[in-house]
Amino acid sequence: MTSPLLPHGELLRQQQGALAEALVTRQFAAHPDLEKRYGAVGRQKCLQDANYHLAYLADAMNAGDPALFANYVAWVKVMLGARGIPSEDLVRHLANTRAVVGDALGGDAGTMAAAYIDVGLAQLPSLPVLTPTHLADDEPHVALARAYLGALLRGERQLASRMILDAVESGVPVKDIYLHVFQATQHEVGRLWQLNEINVGQEHYCTAATQLVMSQLYPHIFTSGKHVGTLVATCVAGDLHEMGIRMVTDFFEMDGWNTYYLGANTPAQAVLDVVVHRRAQVLAVSATISLHLRAVSELIEKVRARPECQALKIIVGGYPFRVAPELWRKVGADGWASSVDEAIEMANRWIA
Asked: What is the pLDDT of residues 54-91, one digit of tens each?
């Protein structure tokens, strides 16, 4: 059985390493100043970036939606600019990518790759060089969110935890903490890394600390009777970003669902085993970036092939599905949700 995702990016995937090498060689030969500016280390980083660009291009082609690649280009412009790399370098790189990939692939795949790159190039001049904060003054509980994030960035995990526990004890709903503190600060942490204001270690520390604080709130979550339905929630194999789907699972729990959260990087067969064993009514699958779409599609394919899962409903979520709202159909899901409340409403409607 073939995947619902289009195969046009597979030729690119198969040649990705060689194409990245050819692309960097061409770019440095055409612009000798790059060698002087960045040296051997810069050349290696350029090769790494080329592989990332090609991987995202291939996934957008497989999904059949140029918006996925264009959105990635917007993110890259900000990320590179924050590291002192002008947007002109990105324009030259994408133009070289268009020539190299188009010639190497040829046919429909080459034409499609060129068209997708053109979409990214066309929007580049008008794209912002900065991304706005997720902790704006008019956001709910913004003072608590800023104080919480500040404590984490200083490495004061116990203080951050105390802030949250005190807020809940004073009457702030756990759902508000999840949405307006945890989710908002995680988005802000990602933005700060994109802007080169924090490093990967700080980003990981903030995530790990927040997961610990979330577990301290479980006495407030696992209290009501389970009377609605059974949900299995997971990240696919290769996806290590579990915070979003963990929050979704906890919201289902608070809504009266019996939940089974499988966490990050879960193999498809393990997901299938739990779905069958627990007789789940709904499977929630998260994809953080477009690089994980193939795994989402393959997981759904395997679930659909099992006779015991014929009545199972599958909901997907994550950043790629917000960028391309029709993508859920292409991966074979029953629906997608842009928010946790929307996901719960959809799931309740399915089993009603």
From this structure: 999 999 999 999 999 999 999 999 999 999 988 998 99
Question: Is the domain of 162 the same as that of 261?
Answer: no
Amino acid identity for residue 263 in this structure? G
114-134 pLDDT, tens digit each = 999 999 999 999 999 999 999
Query: 3-state class of 313 per DSSP?
Result: strand
Spatial strand order in the sheet of 313-317: 258-261, 230-235, 282-286, 313-317, 335-336
How big, in percent rounded to 5, are the helix, strand and coil portions of the chain? Answer: 65, 5, 25
Question: Is residue 5 included in any domain, yes or no?
Answer: no
Give the domain-ending residue among 102, 126, 150: 126
Give the range of the structural domain holding residue 39, as residue numbers without chain letter: 10-126
Is the per-residue pLDDT at 32 higher than 90? Answer: no
Q: Does residue 132 lie within any of the structural domains?
A: no
CB-based contact 249:230 (threshold 8 Å): no
Q: How far apart, in whole angstroms, are the C-alpha atoms of residue 231 and residue 274?
A: 10
Whether 49 is in a domain gets the answer yes
* This prediction's pTM: 0.90
